[in-house]
Amino acid sequence: MKPFHLILLVLAGVGIATVISMYGNTTQYVAFPDAKRIAIENPGKAVHVVCKLNKAKPVIYDAQTNANRLEFYGFDSLNNESKVVFTKPKPAQFEQLEKMVLIGTYQDDHFLATEILSKCPSKYEDAPGAVKSNK
Amino acid sequence: MNEPIKNIVFAGEWLWLGNLGHAFTIIAFIAAIASAYFYFQHESSKDNSMLQWAKRCFQLHAISIVGVFVVLFSIIFYHRYEFYYAWRHSSNALPVYYMISCFWEGQEGSFLLWLFWNALIGLVLQRSAKDWESPVMVVIAFAQIALGSMLVGFHWGDFKIGSSPFDLLREQRPDFLNIPILGQLGVENYLQVFKDGNGLNALLQNYWMVIHPPTLFLGFATAIVPFAYSLSALWRGIDRGWIAPAHIWSLVCAGILGLGIIMGGFWAYESLSFGGYWAWDPVENASLMPWLIMASAAHMLIITKATGRHLFTSHLLVQLSFWLVLYATFLTRSGILGEASVHSFTDLGLSGQLLLFLLAFLALALVVVLQGKQRKIALFSILAVMLIPMVLAYSIEAPESVATFYQWLKGLGTCLFFGWLIYYIYVLYQRTKMEMSDERMDSREFWMFLGSMFLILSLVQVFAATSIPVFNKLFGYKTAVPTAADYNKVQLWLAMPIFLLMSLGYWFKFRETDIASIKRPLLVNTVLTLVATLLLTIGFAIEGYQFILFLLLTVGVVVFNMIYGIQKKKTEWKRWGGNVSHIGFGILMMGVLVSSVNKNILSSTKEGIDMAPEVDQKGNQDTKGIKFNRENQLLYKNKPQVLQEYTAIYLDDRKGLGVDSIDKYFKVAFVKKNEQGKTIDSFVLEPKTQNNPKMGLLAEPSTRHFLHTDIFSHVNYESSMDRKEPYSNFRVDTIGFFRPFITQTGKVVMTIDSIRRTKETAGLKLVLAIKAKRLGDSVWLRPEFMINEQTGDFEMKAAENDRFGIMANIINLQIIDPNPAHQNIVFVIQTGEKTPVWDYVVIQVIAFPWINLVWAGTIIMVIGFVISVLNRIDKQKKLMA
């Protein structure tokens, strides 16, 4: 084997290893009980949970007490309920969010989210109901 | 309802304008087809009259595209909301200089811009390509046909190809004609109701968004030229002649695309709220991927030109960068990214068509690469039979009954697609492989090749991570999108060998190098690099071995290229291009390192320890509070707050200009004092919020730029967002006229000033006028009390004032003296205050040290590309002469 091909082979190996390790590191979207289990098995590993706000329970954000703490209850995609604590200020129009993705870890009795990805339901004007604002 | 509409003559529509635009579109489309045909004929027959026809047709095409552009701009400029595009993407309030941004908010406008750049590139190629004109222009014209088909807008029942920017509002949204008010006005007068448009996305209303997208699009558009040259060479069976022009264009592309990408980063930094210029967002990655490969291809073309080696890799990379441009278009425009991206591109239901678009180019490439007519025909028929169903399966929502069949079809189509791709690469390899001895380890081409391979490795990771939403859709996975940290930890290490090779490569000569002769300069360079790194490590205060290593290697790029230029090229500036680009890139990456590793969140707070762990993922103490951030500080109005070395004071807020403005600016002063208490620095930042009814709270940061650091501030919450909460701090007073009483907190003083009585059918209505005073400001509150004289029941209606955040309610009244003239009445009044009573703002303040290196590095890099391009054009001209 020529040394040149050896180098190519090594590079290809590095590439494959990179991709495999990256896919190994990715998480599936999980439910709250899984998040709880992962937090015990693998402390500190961040997971993603697709979550819907429980509108029946209070959303607590008191900027004057702690500007970096938002507390609410949410359902995962399998309808398990959990308390969620978010470490940033309350996002705008939070109560109207249809669906959000929480990124974080489970801790004691709550899911500690360091990031919330969301799309405002009325962001797309073509979405049903959004047209009303135009009249 | 639908039937009679057809016979209605609608008032006030400028249908002729739309028809004109549509006519231009169709002329452009047909002219592109004709041009492609004539160029093809000229290439096959060498008949010169064909060439003349081809040139004219393409020029007609270019003029028509300009025509479409002008018509669409007129529609937006004159606020013709009978056209869906204008209604959807613009509004009356939109200033003229943002109207151009309407072009890239919508899909049709974006394709139009792409067509425009391609047409311009085509005109340049007509002058510069010489004997390569015909085959290259066939590819360009083919692209114009494909892009044009997206604008023509054919409809067959439910199946549509393209969407015209001249579609009418009433056709796109027939439901609008059913709104109740048109019942009185008459449907034909619907334009009297739709007098304003939906408006341009607020995020696009920024001057950077006027220049960043067209630059990026021009970068994307130029990627087609090296691709066209590669296909032309394969078509003609020529090895070499295509390389020089393809190399020039690859440099043009890499330069413009690089500039466009960083402009996007600058826009994000200046006007988005995530606090940075790069977030590994899929849309950013989509533009980075073709750049990585184009940079790699530019180097590979140098090798092929200088030594004749790696012809296959040159072809492959040049083509790959163009495929990645198409893939980027698919990613960002098909809506497949969904929630994975912060960019709000909409799905126009064209994902099937975009796939078709991608496949059309692959088919073109395959037809060129394969030789022998039968093979072409055989392959084409397989393609047509198998891939069209796949496209349909993507573009049409599967009915419940055939869902599994659709899934199966998709799987089959996907397998076919990849099989086809691999076969294509195999044939390409067969056609372009060369038997040559191995290159020597002491040759420049060896190190350049290695560097290009590392760029590809970098791409592989970005591609694999960015494509996760695509794989999820293809195979029904539920993999979460990787975070920025996932990218950073891989890319940090992949970048290092690239830096090393960028430093060393130039010192080697093509073919073989006399190692003894470069030993000394390399040693000197290494020592210089080490010294400079030592000083910079202290100067920048970098900690962590991986970051110091990264710094060392970026410093190396700057030093090695600088010294090489000084030694070998001296004042022959024309030859400096490559070195200057490398130096710029080194400085850029140095800036990226310092500004992100030493980013200092001034507003981080230790409050609320109960909720966030103090350890990061590796179990290290997280002293900077970055990992689990408590990054926001609450500033009360007029109350100074210490933010590390600064003291911040929220002074005031003001509404944006204009009556309807929903902008709110917060004036926050920053003061820095030295140990003697003397002010050494002070400035005011005005971060903005926009309470956008469509998009929620949009915050625009405000940044103070110093030479060595930027102070970035951004509002995440503010007191008026709290005011929707119910009242608290209730208090009840029993009080008579003219006697002051206070609210629970004592911040507002009230007096009952007068009473008004009116007899109504329901009974006696009493309205109190209460004057409320706060810090020299006052408002009136008028609570009501209604007594039904027959039944003795009473009703009350509280009065509120939003500005003061207070309410007052009459709960009861006791009449001491029944004679109304004496006004001897005592009221039982409940008052309440909304919390918070004081204004506050929740703000994030970040110091980015040496972020100017990022921008400076970019500018230097682009200058390097410009020098290289000019130099190469010069050389090419001399060669031709």
**Into which percentage range does the β-strand content of chain A fall?**
25-35%
The main sheet of chain B comes to: 6 strands, antiparallel
Q: Tell how many strands the DSSP assignment of chain A holds.
A: 6
Q: Could you tell me which chain pair has the largest interface and how many residues each side has? A: A-B, 56 and 68 residues
What is the oligomer described by this structure? heterodimer
Order of helices and strands of chain A: HEHEEEEE
Q: Under the CATH scheme, which class of one domain in chain A?
A: Mainly Beta
Radius of gyration of chain A from CA coordinates: 21 Å
What value does the Rg of chain B take, in angstroms? 34 Å
Approximate shape of chain B: globular
The pLDDT mean of chain B sits at 85
Please mark out the parts of chain B with pLDDT under 50 across 5 or more consecutive residues, or reply none.
608-628
Layout: helices, strands, pairs:
The complex is a heterodimer of chains A (135) and B (881).
Chain A: H1 3-25, E1 29-30, H2 32-41, E2 47-53, E3 70-76, E4 81-86, E5 100-107, E6 110-118
Parallel strand pairs in A: 1-2, 4-6
Antiparallel strand pairs in A: 2-3, 2-5, 3-4, 5-6
Chain B: H1 2-5, H2 15-45, H3 48-77, H4 84-89, H5 96-99, H6 102-105, H7 107-128, H8 133-152, E1 154-156, E2 159-161, H9 169-172, H10 181-185, H11 208-222, H12 224-236, H13 243-271, H14 282-307, H15 311-333, H16 351-369, H17 373-395, H18 403-432, H19 444-466, H20 468-475, H21 484-504, H22 515-540, H23 545-569, H24 577-597, E3 600-601, E4 632-636, E5 641-643, E6 646-655, E7 663-673, E8 679-685, E9 688-692, E10 696-700, E11 702-705, E12 709-718, E13 727-735, E14 741-742, E15 749-760, E16 763-774, E17 777-781, E18 784-787, E19 794-797, E20 799-801, E21 806-815, E22 825-834, E23 840-849, H25 852-880
Antiparallel strand pairs in B: 1-2, 3-23, 4-23, 5-6, 6-7, 7-8, 7-9, 9-10, 11-12, 12-23, 13-22, 14-15, 15-16, 16-17, 16-18, 18-19, 20-21, 21-22
